[in-house]
Write a structure and sequence with these properties.
The chain is built from 14 helices and 22 strands. By secondary structure, it is an alpha/beta fold. The chain folds into three domains: 76 residues, Peptidase S8 propeptide/proteinase inhibitor I9 (Alpha-Beta Plaits), CATH 3.30.70.80; 238 residues, Peptidase S8/S53 domain (Rossmann fold, 3-Layer(aba) Sandwich); 87 residues, Nuclear Transport Factor 2, Chain: A (Roll). The longest helix has 21 residues. The N and C termini lie close together (12 Å).
Length: 501
């Protein structure tokens, strides 16, 4: 008895060791704090401005009382460079020397001039923590037909991210992601997990992604570029904007970026924004997280405790924010080198909620952004913390889905169980499988099928069965390493069963 127990323990230890050896290593990345300043430059002009154009050029956003068109000519006559003329809000983004500030403020039609603040990133258990698995398995929803625009550092080429349907660059660097933040965010929202056999599957992997690059390779950008990115995404078919970016400015919701975000919501597009990484101090919500109509997201760890870094409310005008919290500590997702990495921040929490919104819109495309926000907040799990820390609570994908669709939580699970049993029986009968060791639903050749793993003549094979569970589609040998681990697991199970029988 003693020797058999020792052998069992030794084998179990070896299985665990092998699992670690063949697993995916994740580089732990903590909060990102670039400490970056705005972009500087110089400009010259022959216009008579009394030497006002001497000095460094800086970026500003000029808000106008109505259509900015008539103001543009006067600004250009002053030597001001107009970078963007917005449609979402009555404003233009400009470059000029600060000495022109008072002159520009006096131009007829100019309502206010604000600094074009620097924006930066506000950075396997996380999908299960928000009950996304129950929506996939219990309701068969993965976000099909929904487009999530990720405004970030870009999205790198990655096996998990073949669902990028559009790319637009506002940094001048071109496509790609040399920083890595945007790739990680996109993967969390809608990555397939293909390169990790599903381990790093995103919340709504059936959704499409729009890559709107507004931060450069250093993680820096400006509000003006983000607003231009919002306009592009809104005008080109995005259903959801995921904004894991923030400007640390006095935030009452009346800055240009917050106003633009609210306008996007008014036009029928869901906007999800990071709360910021300036906690635990009160009143630290960043823009556009302070916008009234967006879903503002704070971060919790794996134990559902609000992360110390997660920004707290209220906003500068006294409103309660964030709206909800989501997993944002040591989140594993795709990296820009083709592998995986872990990051922390409200940046990581935000795409979890964007993914949940995609699941809701896929089930009911008629849901308004206001309804999506209400459902997400009303069904969030209260974690017992202050309203300005947790918002309404930790987002719950299954509860939100059930509320939005009037579905009974878990009502479809019985059908899934029946299909799994049918698939297992089909594999046994068709291939003479002596023992079934696993049944799971996976995507294969563009369709969802059941992969039944088991022993045939002492060898582990995968038998792929159609979604109804009654027809074998393919039979494939299990890879060498996986087969080795499966044999060890099977041996340990047999030893333990004999030991305690």
């Amino acid at each position: 008895m003693g020797s058999r127990f020792a052998v069992a323990v030794l084998c179990l230890f070896f299985v665990v060791s092998m699992a670690v050896a063949v697993g995916l290593d994740a580089d732990t990345v903590t909060l990102e704090d670039s400490g970056l300043n705005g972009v500087d430059g110089t400009g010259d002009s022959d216009s008579d401005t009394g030497g006002l154009l001497d000095g460094d050029v800086e970026k500003f956003i000029v808000r106008t009382a109505g259509d900015p068109g008539p103001v543009v000519d006067e600004l250009e006559d002053l030597g001001v460079t107009v970078r963007y003329e917005y449609e979402l809000i009555d404003a233009v983004a400009v470059e000029m020397v600060p000495a022109l500030l008072e002159t520009v403020e006096d131009v007829p039609g100019v309502e206010a001039v604000e600094d074009d603040a620097v924006i930066e990133p506000v950075l396997v258990q996380s999908t299960s923590q928000i009950n996304a698995q129950q929506v996939w398995d219990g309701h068969g929803e993965t976000g099909d037909g929904v487009v999530i625009a990720v405004l970030d550092t870009g999205i790198a080429e990655h096996d998990d991210l073949e669902n990028v349907v559009d790319r637009q660059d506002f940094t001048g660097e071109g496509d790609g992601d040399e920083h890595g933040h945007g790739t990680h965010v996109a993967s969390t929202a809608a990555g397939s997990g293909a390169a990790s056999a599903g381990t790093y599957r995103g919340v709504a992997d059936g959704a499409d992604l729009m890559d709107v690059k507004v931060l450069d390779r250093t993680g820096a950008g400006h509000m003006s570029d983000a607003i231009a990115g919002m306009e592009y995404a809104t005008g080109n078919g995005a259903d959801i904007l995921s904004l894991s970016i923030g400007a640390s400015i006095p935030c009452d919701g009346n800055d240009a970026m917050s106003l633009a975000a609210d306008t996007v919501v008014e036009r029928g597009v869901v906007v999800v924004a990071a709360a910021g990484n300036s906690g635990p101090a009160a009143g630290t919500i960043t823009s556009p997280g302070c916008a009234e109509n967006v879903i503002t997201v704070g971060a919790v760890d794996a134990t559902d405790s609000t992360a110390a870094f997660s920004s707290r409310g209220p906003t500068a005008d006294g409103r309660a924010k964030p709206d909800v919290v989501a997993p944002g500590v040591l989140i594993g997702a795709a990296s820009n080198d083709g592998g995986y990495t872990t990051k922390s921040g409200t940046s990581m929490a935000t795409p979890h909620v964007a993914g949940v919104a995609a699941l809701l819109l896929a089930a009911d495309p008629g849901l308004s952004p206001e309804r999506v926000k209400t459902v997400v907040m009303e069904t969030a799990a209260d974690i017992g913390e202050d309203r300005y820390a947790q918002g309404a609570g930790r987002v719950d994908a299954e509860a939100a889905f059930a509320d939005a669709t009037d579905a009974e939580p878990g009502a479809a699970e019985a059908d899934r169980d029946r299909e799994r049993d049918d698939a297992s029986s089909t594999a046994r009968e068709s291939e003479g499988m002596e023992e079934v060791t696993g049944v799971e639903q996976r995507e294969r050749n563009g369709t969802m099928q059941y992969r039944v793993t088991g022993l045939v003549n002492g060898t582990f094979v995968d038998v792929w069965v159609d979604p109804e569970g009654d027809r074998v589609v393919a039979v494939e040998p299990v890879g060498t390493v996986r087969s080795f681990v499966l044999h060890l697991q099977h041996r340990v199970s047999s030893l333990l069963a004999g030991l305690f029988s």
